[in-house]
């Protein structure tokens, strides 16, 4: 399951206005994790028969979740303020729907809600969600605003909610939640195109010991000043047949005044179609940065990937540049746009390198946002998983260092910021208290028993340290280069040469005796097994190949990754991987193996990279609701597709080179921000012609399967000639 959402948003928009199809609690009645909730990371499941409502914030492709703020639902008939159930939608405000009436486009979503007979249409600006509801004739039409609803929800997640009814068509307020984002406050301003006749609320708070003297007022009916933990509101109308009622909800992390400024700046009128056209023009601009030639199915896959790659990170500031910082104070972004939603364990691999190529200004702003996070962090850490003015501490490593190093080395970040970036990277990598880092610094690895992911964390630290070393070398810091180059070799300390795999190692230096190279459960790895993670040395493939016995032993070993058969017990341990999401033992849906197919380039058989890349492209991506072989992970799965379809991939960000693969496109043109273009031509392209016969960069024959990043960023031409049989680059 890709965990993507179909609703309306603009590129990197702060609002993701999308349907939610069920309300599944994060916990069971006994207080344990409810595995069913995992299906709803993005709020929407294609197979569900009902829609609960339309909320304004969603994560795309994640394997954990939050958000689902400010759910809105139009209803007709007797007022119901509970969502009801999928089996009995009439028991609440949810509605049945059909995919036959569902339309999803960039910046636009439409569906017919069958039970109230309301046509729902959604569009968005960067900070405003816009709804257009076409009602039947009704004296009892309602719009429900559910401030209890949320994704990965549970009792007590709402810390506090405040609502102020300003007049008969404007409502402001905020909600603070304690979820994945531990202290997350979101403000809103909600405007209606038609004055409501009456409004009301219900407070679902459990009995509290103190409520002050508010009990003297009837807060359930037409009361403008509301607060509590669990609130739902309704706004009542009389409608004519075919009458359209529009809503605009602006968001802000700073204040209701900020939300109002965002509303007035981005959606001052009520022209829904003009806002839709405006949003779609923004998407056209982003998607047109790469033009490809190829059959329709390949274009469907490619531009779907481009779309998903431009959903996050998300803008996180008001129109005037104010944003909520990690210290929970409001800050002013000076000279950059502030971003959040940094799923760095995933996106350092290909998404940020893609931005360096086709979105360098935006990626520079993202780097500035990470440095602002560092400045505001009580721990003085660069972000690990940054989310709405919170550090989630999700996954492992400190991969923001890789993003910063790659951005500086590629020239994306100005020289004036480079020293600041290096200092933040070094400080982050020296925090002994963080996730076994003290042991790693002392012993050269994270010991088994100190961390449940000791091996994968060691491997991730080693790569991040290598990136810091490259940045230090670039800036002339020989001492730091030596320090972090030595640390970059720590991957060797968890490699057990006796079995040829990475393996958990105790503090006394002994390798764990009981060990399963296929299992993903309790073996020292995060979202992976020893088979995939033993290849996770992207900064030193040659060294890894030598450790594994050279080409003679390594190539058959890598071959078997793509041909082995995994037992059913493997899938019982994984939440997000099915048999359809793997090729042999290669797990494309989990990112640690994303570079694996490209490792043949460091052997004497690089054509096997070409064959496997095309195999993965064909089997792990296709149009349809089940078209991704795993979670899209904030664009990383899609960035892999984009690079690989173009014919090259950043195996080691910060290395200054791409590894060549096998282009899927028939041709492409990348429009670079410097005004130049990088053109890819492909002769003899076809489903059987997966092997590169020759590759020329600006007319010069490439004798090795690598491409310098700097030359690509300056524009030029990469010319492939394809064939049905393997060939040497040196021909």
TrEMBL record:
* UniProt key word Transmembrane: no
Which positions fall inside the Glycosyl hydrolase family domain? 259-723
What Gene3D superfamilies does the record point to? 2.70.98.10, alpha-1,2-mannosidase (1.20.1050.60), alpha-1,2-mannosidases domains (1.20.1610.10), GH92 mannosidase domain (3.30.2080.10)
Q: What does the record give under GO molecular function?
A: carbohydrate binding; peptide-N4-(N-acetyl-beta-glucosaminyl)asparagine amidase activity
Q: What Pfam families would the database entry show?
A: Glyco_hydro_92, Glyco_hydro_92N
InterPro entries reported in the protein's UniProt record: 6-hairpin_glycosidase_sf, GH-type_carb-bd, GH92_a_mannosidase_put, GH92_N, Glyco_hydro_92, PNGase
- Say yes or no: keyword Hydrolase present: yes
**Which cofactors, by name?**
Ca(2+)
Q: Which NCBIfam families match?
A: aman2_put
| Oligomeric and partner information | Monomer.
Protein name stated in the entry: Sugar hydrolase
């Amino acid at each position: 399951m890709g965990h993507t959402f179909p609703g309306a948003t603009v590129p990197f928009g702060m609002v993701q206005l999308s349907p939610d199809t069920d309300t599944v609690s994060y916990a069971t009645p006994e207080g344990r994790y409810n595995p069913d909730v995992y299906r709803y990371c993005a709020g929407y499941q294609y197979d569900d028969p009902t829609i609960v409502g339309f909320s304004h914030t969603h994560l795309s492709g994640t394997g954990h979740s939050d958000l689902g703020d400010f759910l809105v639902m139009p209803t007709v008939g007797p007022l119901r303020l509970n969502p009801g159930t999928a089996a009995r939608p009439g028991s609440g405000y949810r509605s049945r729907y059909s995919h036959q009436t569902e339309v999803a486009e960039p910046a636009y979503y439409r569906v017919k809600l069958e039970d109230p007979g309301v046509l729902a249409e959604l569009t968005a600006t960067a900070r405003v969600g816009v709804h257009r509801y076409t009602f039947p004739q009704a004296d009892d039409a309602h719009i429900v605003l559910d401030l209890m609803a949320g994704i990965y929800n549970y009792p007590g997640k709402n810390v506090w909610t405040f609502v102020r009814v300003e007049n008969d068509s404007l409502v402001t307020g905020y909600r603070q939640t304690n979820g994945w984002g531990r202290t997350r406050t979101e403000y809103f301003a909600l405007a209606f195109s038609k004055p409501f006749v009456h409004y009301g609320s219900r407070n679902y708070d459990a009995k509290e010991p103190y409520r002050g003297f508010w009990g003297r007022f009837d807060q359930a009916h037409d009361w403008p000043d509301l607060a509590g933990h669990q609130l739902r509101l309704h706004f009542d109308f009389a409608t004519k047949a075919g009458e359209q009622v529009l809503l605009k909800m602006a968001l802000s992390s700073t204040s209701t005044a900020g939300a109002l400024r965002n509303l007035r700046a981005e959606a001052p009128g009520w022209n829904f179609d003009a806002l839709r056209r405006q949003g779609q023009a923004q998407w056209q601009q982003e998607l047109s940065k790469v033009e490809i030639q190829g059959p329709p199915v390949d274009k469907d896959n490619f531009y779907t990937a481009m779309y998903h790659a431009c959903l996050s990170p998300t803008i996180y500031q008001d129109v005037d540049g104010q944003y909520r910082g990690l210290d929970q104070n409001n800050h002013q972004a000076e000279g950059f746009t502030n971003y959040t939603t940094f799923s760095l364990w995933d996106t350092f691999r290909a998404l940020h390198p893609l931005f360096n190529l086709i979105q360098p200004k935006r990626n520079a702003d993202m780097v500035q946002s990470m440095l602002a996070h560092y400045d505001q962090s009580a721990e003085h850490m660069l972000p690990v998983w940054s989310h709405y003015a919170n550090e989630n501490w999700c996954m492992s490593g400190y991969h923001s260092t890789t993003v910063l190093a790659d951005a500086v080395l590629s020239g994306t970040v100005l020289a004036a910021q480079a020293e600041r970036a290096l200092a933040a990277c070094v400080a982050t990598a020296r925090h002994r208290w963080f996730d076994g880092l003290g042991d790693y610094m002392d012993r050269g690895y994270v010991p088994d028993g100190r961390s449940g992911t000791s091996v994968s964390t060691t491997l991730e630290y080693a790569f991040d340290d290598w990136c810091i070393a490259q940045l230090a070398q670039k800036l002339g810091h020989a001492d730091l280069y030596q320090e972090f180059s030595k640390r970059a070799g720590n991957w060797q300390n968890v490699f057990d040469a006796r079995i040829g795999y990475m393996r958990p190692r105790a503090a006394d230096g002994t390798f764990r005796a009981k060990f399963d190279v296929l299992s993903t459960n309790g073996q020292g790895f995060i979202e992976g097994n020893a088979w995939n993670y033993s290849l996770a040395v992207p900064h030193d493939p040659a060294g890894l190949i030598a450790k594994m016995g050279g080409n003679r032993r390594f190539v058959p070993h890598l071959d078997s990754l793509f041909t082995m058969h995994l037992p059913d017990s493997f899938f019982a341990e994984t939440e997000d991987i099915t048999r359809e999401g793997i090729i042999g033992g290669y797990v494309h849906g989990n990112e640690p193996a994303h570079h694996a197919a490209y490792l043949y380039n460091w052997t004497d058989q690089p054509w096997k990279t070409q064959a496997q890349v095309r195999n993965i492209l064909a089997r792990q991506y296709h149009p349809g609701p089940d078209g991704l072989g795993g979670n899209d992970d904030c664009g990383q799965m899609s960035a892999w597709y984009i690079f690989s379809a173009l014919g090259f991939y950043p195996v080691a960000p910060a290395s200054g080179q791409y590894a060549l693969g096998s282009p899927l496109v028939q041709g492409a043109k990348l429009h670079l921000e410097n005004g130049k273009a990088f053109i890819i031509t492909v002769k003899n392209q076809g489903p059987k012609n997966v092997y590169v016969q020759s590759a020329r960069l600006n007319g010069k024959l490439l004798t090795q399967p690598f491409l310098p990043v700097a030359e690509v960023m300056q524009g030029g031409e990469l010319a492939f000639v394809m064939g049905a049989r393997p060939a040497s680059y040196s021909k």
